[in-house]
Amino acid sequence: MEIEMVKCECCGLKEECTPDYISSVKSKFDGKWLCGLCSEAVRDEVLRRPGVEDAVRAHMSFCGKMKSNNPAVRVADGMRQMLRRRSRDESSNPRRYARSNSTSQVGGKSSYTMC
């Protein structure tokens, strides 16, 4: 199996991936390779602004404004931003995450599900 090193065009994080996976990701994000965290941030941004191209541009701008040259720090900051947004979304829509009436397979405890 062929593996290639690819660099996220937003945060600079490097990953080893197959050429098929690289092509798949690029096809979803206007020809740009995005790491998993940046792709989630862009998907989240698409909910706020129309079009993938604008969402990719907005996230790339955000990553470009980060002061640190360390990709790990930028990834952590991106995660923090995404969690803050989701936290705001959850507080404005409390039924989005609700307890299910079913029990889990382990220990009989209730689980959380998306509504």
What does this structure look like?
With 115 residues, the protein is of the alpha+beta class. The protein has one domain. It contains four helices and four strands; from the N terminus they run ββααααββ. It has helices at residues 19-28, 36-46, 52-65, 71-92; strands at residues 4-7, 14-17, 97-103, 110-114. Strands 1-2 form a two-stranded antiparallel sheet. It has a two-stranded antiparallel sheet with strand order 3-4. Strand 1 (4-7) and strand 2 (14-17) form a beta hairpin. Helix 2 packs across helix 3 (52-65) and helix 2 (36-46) runs parallel beside helix 4 (71-92). The chain is globular. 17% of the residues are buried.
Summarize the structure.
This protein has 115 residues and is an alpha+beta fold. The protein contains 4 helices and 4 strands; from the N terminus they run ββααααββ. It has a two-stranded antiparallel sheet with strand order 1-2. A two-stranded antiparallel ribbon has the order 3-4.
